[in-house]
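Standup notes
- DV: blocked on the single-chain target, sequence here:
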Amino acid sequence: MSLCADGVMLAQRWAGLQQYRRWLTWPHTGVPAWDAAGHRGPLGPCGVTPCQQGSPGQDHGRRLAAILECGEGLGIPGISRRTHRGLRQPRRAESAHGRDSPEHQATLQRCRRQPRPAWGTGVSLRDDSSRGRAGISSTSSCDITHPVSLPRATTFSVETGSSFPQLGMHQPLEPPGQQPPGYGKCIPVGSDGGKAAGFSAGSGGSGKGPVICSPVCGNPYAGLVSHLRATWLSGKTRPMEYRVAQLEALGRFLDEKKQDILEATALDMGKPSFEAYFTEILLCKNELNDTLNNLCHWMKDEHVDKNLVTQLDSAFIRKDPYGVVLIIAPWNYPIHLFLVPLIGAIAAGNCVVVKPSETTKNTERLVAEMLTCYLDNDCFAVVTAGVQETTRLLENKFDYIFFTGSPSVGRIVMTAAAKHLTPVTLELGGKNPCYVSDTCDVQNVARRVAWGRFFNAGQTCIAPDYVLCSVEMQEKLMPALREAITEFFGSNPRESPDFGRIVGDKQFRRIRALLCSGRVAIGGQTDEKERYIAPTVLADVLPSDPAMQEEIFGPILPIVVVASMDEAIDFINARPRPLAIYAFSCDSKVVNQVLERTSSGGFCGNDTLMHVTLTSLPFGGIGNSGLGKYHGKFTFDTFTHHRGCLHRNMGLEALNALRYPPYSQQKLGLLTATFEIKRKGMCTLL
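- DV (later): unblocked, structure below
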């Protein structure tokens, strides 16, 4: 029996059993709906939810077998239930006929000719593997949706077309409470030409899942944002105990999925396990533990100074969450750069939508499948989306947007936020200069610069983008850099397990085109099939060369010759303010001169990258390199509205008479004496 025939049979059996109150379906993610008895159950095509995620393109027989295997005990013929753990795939089963066989195609054609069920609009998953995400498209009537009450942690796989990814869901069972305003008024249709993105929401909470809006509502993510906002307004995220519980769940995610994270980042960009553990796990756990250690202090009201009139009153700063916030993460550090802001957003008491990068497909899938099993799905959701879907997502009103990426996309995000007057943090990039004076330890400089430039194959927003030094220092640096590269990666870096690869073909071609700048002094080898670019140093690079016109974001280090420190500072100041500036010198006065006479998001003297490892330092850009800051308490403050509060005494009304009409000079004099703030050191004789 084909999947479509199964769906029609189930639909007919369910249609006569019960009259449903309000229910909604998210077939591409399995967000919950309710049956007539008020039980909550995830759904998907043919009434099931795929909680066991697998790779796109698995055959129809495997998916059908998962459905048939999953429901014994539910009382529904042809469906059985089984639980899942981790990233294991559904067990393969024999298919009645292959996806591409004539029998299968004939069955699909018969299903398409059958009438659509009256109770819902069918939606199917669309595998857009070229962009690494799942979409939604309107389907034939064989793609039937109806509610089934299921236990948590239930694994399902479905297929209604040629090839589809399996998206996970880990849901609790609770009857619905009061519906949030506007909730349940939308139906699942392909509202944007089959381009709407899927999302996964995690478990651990209660209440209803989000919905997809129809064209009438205007946006496919409006239901999700509305649901999260209703949860936030309920006050669920405000207690410290709740925040701590969710943060501890993030810690379990890092501990239990450590190997999965290392494997996913290795598959996406050949990231060495040492670098992946250091940046994606260790630094994230540092941020997490620092937050857990200090959250009770950060959340407390901050009492402030008062004037004479308010001495008997209470004046304080209340640390309020913003509400529903959006975090858009990049691909170069795909775990770290969404998890660190997420830690601060949870600590501040917000509901969060996380959008990981679609470029790193394996990591995106891991986040969508696994992270959501640790967090409360009423408060936190993961959206998997490409460019067009993210554009639609940004049309919604968020209370805060945190974006990490390029300046060009940052402008788009800021424009979208401006329509709702939404505050933003933009963590962008730029060309980070590295000045090397003539008075320094050349060997130490070479090792520290080479490490910072070629870490993660140069795909780091704060990596030194180019070196400024004299001709004499350039001649000394070349052999020292060659020696450092050989020490780090061997004589053939291509064979080194400690050197990564470029993330994609487009990025590879862009970086390779920059090799025509100056002359290749070290490296320069490339392999497009492996997306490999050797650690490369370019000498005698001119300011007009291609490598100096854009952020390199790859394993290429240009050296630009300057005559003096003053010329280097002028060179830096003539360009957009970078995310970081580095200065090397044995003379601390030289380092301080560069620090005092330039402007950048961050600064590090006599080393590279290391300033971002401190949770006590703010990290962020300025001007073209970004807006806002985070890390440690700064992340908590970023996602916190500092609310000025004054709680006055209801009595002592005589003290207020000075400010009430009718006015007089005597009242003004007394008012000035009680409200005025004088400069310290000034003596006033009464």
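- Follow-up: Residues 14 and 243 are 40 Å apart (CA to CA).
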